[in-house]
Give the backbone structure.
Amino acid sequence: MARILLGVTGGIAAYKALELIRLATAAGHSVRVIQTDNSQRFVGAASFAAITGAPVLTTEWERDPARGAFPDQATPEHDPISHLELVRNADCFVVAPASANTIAKLASGFADNLLTSAALAASCPLVVAPAMNHQMWQNAATQENIERLRGRSVAIVDPEVGSLASRNEWGSGRLAQPATILAAVEQLVPRGQRPWDGRRVLVTAGGTREAIDAVRFVGNRSSGRMGFALAEAAAARGASVTVVAANVDLPRHAQISYVDVESAAELERAATEEFPSCDLLLMVAAVSDFTAEEPASGKLKKDGRSELELTLSPTNDVLAALSQLRADGQTLVGFAAEHGADAVETAREKLTRKGLDALVVNDVSGDDIGFESTSNEVTIVTANGDQHVPKADKLAIANEILDAVDVLHRDRAQASS
Ligand code: CTP
């Protein structure tokens, strides 16, 4: 657990600071926020106060009701100079998003608002996550300022390339993912006790492909986003995480191990090898139920055929087989994409048939959730009942799932001790 002081500057990406706080607090960290005036035009102090459970400061001239204490600390008797007390208590000061203007001020040592004064007074590590228009990011002045900060051992979390806030603009300057910023912070702060420290989590993600010939396959539409979000959320809680990734083309996380596979048989081999050393299995991958019996070694030719017959034979049910090998204390969670009204009923049957602790079901009949989408809506089915998790982005859903799995895993660990 660390005390993270978060400085938020003005920019559209200010809303992503809320997700950073949510991830940090879910990982057991204590967070306080300093905002610039401009940032309040994008996200109000009330949101940051609600999500941190602590007052938000903007100027040196306001009294801090918490007197510089973090949410995990008692409020001191005396009334210290609050911003100095806040940075003294912090294990890390992270500025996210950091605007071009604030970066310039930090590089030049300005102290013209509470955020820059606190940065100048900080003796803890400083992390800066820039976010701006790509021309501003590439401008030589900004790049020189960034190099000056790097030269002073400030950790820079580079912005990502992608579509930017202005319509039709694309380039480098988009704030890094909140999980990436948190990982940068966690590399600098003392590890301490995080809620999932010592837990080993195995995640399967993506969708398998069964070869028909040398260039074609039978596959499915799973993107791997849900599995990767779960892996990142578990790593942020302190778990050591391995992902068996079936054909996933998404950014990788430095603190997670990945084993890449293609077919159901390869996934089965990798998952069976990793399973004995995990405490928790999150089987998110869409595993093909059938595979081509005799894939052609070259490329199949039309050869004047009017039809092509493919014979598929069933694959093994990897999850059901692993559940047979389960050791005391291991928790197994399956994931099922279902269509329509009977989704939860079908899930309940699979839960029993495969011997699982939970089955997370999403109804993929709507086209705005599931598969390639960045958001999802699920129902977590367990022997004790169902929990509906309303539509949210996949990282938020991942954290809800981990909260539910946490309870199941503790029960299982208790039962086996
Ligand atoms: N699963 C697996 N091996 C398979 C098929 C599925 O391990 N050959 C796992 C999936 O990773 C998932 C869970 O089983 O966690 C449920 O997947 P789903 O495809 O819904 O289950 P099936 O038993 O294949 O049911 P259906 O007949 O509806 O396809």
Remarks:
- The first helix runs from residue 14 to 26.
- The longest strand covers residues 385-393.
- The chain has a mean pLDDT of 91.
- The radius of gyration is 24 Å.
